[in-house]
């Protein structure tokens, strides 16, 4: 070692080694020699069996601190030291603390953990919620605790080879003659209360049996009966074990608290008084127990047995309180129904204990304000002279809103938030002091009788305060333990009001005239100043506003009335109400839609620029309600939202309400999980309305009305607090997918699928009876009969196919519609008091085609000349109808049968019907069904329908008197009549000059019958008719085909020719049928020979 090297043990005064010393130690290995020896396996046993100290350190010990000598202390600490003092300090710098010699464990000394209940000698510290003065006062009143019971003996095999030698945990000597106590193993027993615990026989003492090595007793909570290495447990397993143990202890404390309560109630003697801090010990502390230390409830928990055996038994036999609710009405196998009720009552006691504890904490932390409240109240009026009703109004009129929990971003906002929080605490404390401190003094004085209404207000407000205190405690919003400064809060109790005459009070109570007395006694305290929801009313918000009473034209002279504006809704009414009330009861004004109770919504004027509301009163008076920006926005948004939602239940412009009812239940599903448009769960008693949307336009023939779909509006009922509403449109171009269901209560239900582009989902509507569901469904799909409507035609149907081209067969065209299993057709029209209903410009005429899984409603609302038809020559029961582009059809299909491909195909087919003209071909089982259907949609009566063998037209030459004949083969002949006017319709199959023709048959026409070659014929002399039109081969569109191959009955084409027409039949019977339908008699004559007829 060199001279410059400091000694190995050199340290500074503060006990830290020098940097150079550590460096030299690392270089020359000095620190390596000081490294502690490896721990051996006997260290743990030495620790448990003796107090030997084998701790070794690798660094130098701390310096020995000399006693401060005040006599030799210098007056000036910064003065320089003398050489002698420097030498003395240098010598002390090298002094080292000697190492304690290793001490051997004393023989017979062991370390154990006791099971005796800890003795609590006091309560205090920074975490104590009770003031020190209260702790000291209760300590003097506390009786000395009873001596703890004798602790049981717990044996363990000696680790030093002593064999079966046992040691007492409680300090008993091994040679004691009293037999050791060993609690019995855990077994299932009746859980619960003192009655079951007290009646249980005590276990007989048994001789302890030494456990075998490697086994555990398993009698403690959370310990396993099989060997388990704790070092192999994961962190999650350790946390789960700790959570189970904490939950078990918490529930055990709750059971013991309820057991003590019931036991003292059955015995008829009160529990021994004990401070509430004795209810918990350090070994029993859990997160649940710290919230349930109510003085009244937790001191009753101390009446039970406090021995470790009873503690473990209570914990091990405790049953989860929610087991009964999960199993329904099943009786527990370990208890009776009475036991289940006892468990629920114990949980109720725990909840009440939590609320009482939170309320006590709030009251204790705001108690320093009570005297200030008294001084301010006494400065205005004497408390003894006040009535309980006045105190109740003053308490109910205190604001009860806490500031928002948003974290302030700036110091200024933080300061404002803290001041607002302190003011909120003070306002809540005012209500508590008025009801719990001032009101008992007033009633005890005997000057004012006990008011039942005031007692109701007190009970309601205290219950609300307890709930709020529990919420504040759970979220960390309780007042701070340090008393906040009262100078920063408003301590006003009584609000000042100007004197008002009785007639003005009548106006402010909602009377229609200032001269008439109020017919009612006014609103109660809780109706005028609601504290929250009640059994008959929902309360949404309450704001403190400034009200000014003035007369119109004299706005400068006004009276200031501080009031509270509440937004409520009775559970029997759908609309909200505004209640304007003052603290002294002079103002009790209800603003609603009922004129009999006060002003209505039409009397309000909203002024957003000034954030005030004008309320017009009778006799030229007016109230100006001045609000804050936030309260004004809230009030107006609530009013507008309520009005908007409820307005959806009324028809809008061009709408007709066709169904309205109250649903048993309504459930709404959509594809947006975050949507708040309507509750996701089933909502009872919802109001529903079904509207038919219409489009009206003026035309040359008069105003016309078209169907534009349906709208379904559903609004929550008055029994539901949260107001919600949905509006779903069902336009004609969207198929209606429905389903018939049964609710959980076996109520008939209707499922409707909607898709409005943004939201997709289902609505389930539950009805009270089957008739309502059928009515709602039939109205929605357009098949219900309205007032004045009737079925004008009905029959079976073999098939229907839709096509956009003339000549398409069933397997072509709109195949999605053609492949449906059509089976029935029904025509609905307006019943014109027994007269023939019009089929043109008929907005109620509709044809309902039914198929296996749904219906198709075709509204035949056509103008004159739009509806055209054609009969097939080869198939007599086939009818083709031409329709213009249609925008008012309704297609309904069962949701369970509508696959994704079918839904897409139906949507595309409806779009085609909307965009383009179509030809619809109907196949009927017989000719009679065809005639009934044709007559129902056209209004024409079918007089004759048959097939002629030949049809000939004689045409004169323009210059010479020569006739040229146009002859056609098989021709479908039909004679129809409407209002006494007959028409002859001829449809050709293979005619080179056209596809069809039609003309009127008049009474002045000349008809002649003839026969030739076995054929019977009919000749119309000089008939007036239009020539048939040619259909070009390349023209296959529906519109082009309708102009050439289809006939319009209501607006036939004007005649342009007058020549002879000859019709030839295969037999006379068919000709005679035609003759019987003609409007004029027929002459018998002989016709010249017709080409092709022998």
Task: Walk me through this protein's architecture.
The protein has 1094 residues and is α+β, with helices and mostly antiparallel strands. Helices cover 27% and strands 23% of the residues. The chain is built from 24 helices and 35 strands. The strands form six sheets. Strands 10-9-16-15-14-24-21-20-19-17 form a ten-stranded mixed sheet, sandwiched between helices. Helix 7 crosses helix 9 (308-316), helix 7 (235-267) packs across helix 11 and helix 11 (337-365) packs across helix 15. The longest helix is centred in the middle third of the chain and has 35 residues, at 411-445. It is elongated and about 140 Å long. The termini are far apart. Residues 1-17, 29-39, 51-61, 70-101, 148-228, 261-338 and 1087-1094 have low confidence and may be disordered.
The coarse overall form would be: elongated
Taking pLDDT < 50 over at least 5 consecutive residues as the criterion, the unreliable ranges are 1-17, 29-39, 51-61, 70-101, 148-228, 261-338, 1087-1094
Sheet having the most strands:
10 strands, mixed
Chain-averaged pLDDT = 75
CA-based gyration radius: 50 Å
Q: What is the multimeric organization of the chains shown?
A: single chain
Structural class: alpha+beta
Q: N- to C-terminal separation?
A: 156 Å
**Which strand order does the major sheet show?**
10-9-16-15-14-24-21-20-19-17
The number of helices is 24
Please tally the β strands and state the result. Answer: 35
Assess the beta-strand content as a share of residues: 15-25%
**Percent helix:** 25-40%
